[in-house]
Design a protein that fits this description.
- 71% of the residues lie in helices and 2% in strands.
- Helix 8 runs antiparallel to helix 9 and helix 11 runs antiparallel to helix 12.
- The protein is an all-alpha fold.
Length: 259
């Protein structure tokens, strides 16, 4: 953890050296996600409620998903570069250093624009959290923070698993892109919008429901198994441990390309 923190801070400082590019990345990330929030705002204001979810509750759910996404991308999102590192042979350099290869790859680059996602997500949560009728207490605030972290770990886990397939010479770029689009499209809406097959897929196969929807039902008092809602952050820790184990298993298959 200490090595990850040192390398992540170093990568962030490196990205901030070019002030113009840093600010442009933040602004572009802010406008892109603000446009998505504006769409939910317009639809929610026009429809009023969707499957029992009020407009402000939909916005709160969106903020929770955005905050979780914005938390994992800046400091772990560089795992998406693994396939290129493996094919070029540059991954060999990470094996020669004393730090964990996963930590080195994950902190090799910081996505600056995703910091805007995290910031916007926090703003939306704070804004809508006061308009949804949530009974805030030290416990609920703590649960919200833990839920954001748990959601970030779930999303990071899924991406790490797909990225590590590169060690087996599997091209997972389309899978990773599809997963990211799926989370962006589905993760910010109630799972109850889907039929039984969709709900099964997004809870039991690709656990997108536990990124934001499940913990949101706890805070908002929405219909969903209470145990699963409270356990969502713990699932994030479990999935992340499983993803690291899968990475360690896959890395044994790595064969240098000699590049």
């Amino acid at each position: 953890m200490r090595a990850w923190w040192i390398l992540a801070v170093a990568a962030l400082r490196s990205g901030m050296q070019y002030r113009g590019n840093f600010l442009l990345s933040l602004v572009s990330g802010l406008f892109y996600n603000a446009s998505s929030f504006a769409l939910i705002w317009v639809l929610g204001a026009r429809l009023g409620a969707v499957q029992g979810w009020e407009f402000t509750e939909l916005c709160f759910l969106f903020g929770l998903r955005l905050a979780a996404h914005g938390l994992w991308i800046p400091f772990l999102g560089a795992v998406s570069n693994l396939e290129q590192l493996v094919r070029s042979g540059n991954f060999d350099t990470y094996l020669l250093r004393p730090a964990s290869p996963l930590v080195q790859v994950a902190t090799s680059q910081v996505s600056i624009d995703s910091l805007a996602e995290l910031g916007l997500g926090v703003v939306v949560l704070a804004w809508m959290g006061g308009r949804t009728g949530i009974q805030w207490s030290p416990f609920s605030v703590t649960f919200l923070v833990v839920a954001v972290i748990g959601g970030a770990l779930i999303e990071a886990s899924l991406q790490i698993v797909l990225a590590s397939l590169a060690f087996s010479d599997v091209n997972s770029r389309q899978l990773r892109t599809g997963l990211d689009q799926m989370i962006t499209t589905v993760g910010g809406y109630p799972i109850s919008l889907f039929d039984s097959v969709g709900r099964f897929i997004f809870t039991g196969v690709v656990p997108i429901a536990f990124i934001a929807f499940a913990p949101a039902t706890v805070l908002l008092g929405k219909p969903f198994p209470v145990f699963l809602g409270y356990a969502a952050p713990a699932f994030g820790v479990a999935f992340f441990c499983g993803a690291i184990a899968f990475w360690n298993l896959q890395i044994r298959r790595y064969r240098s390309s000699g590049g």
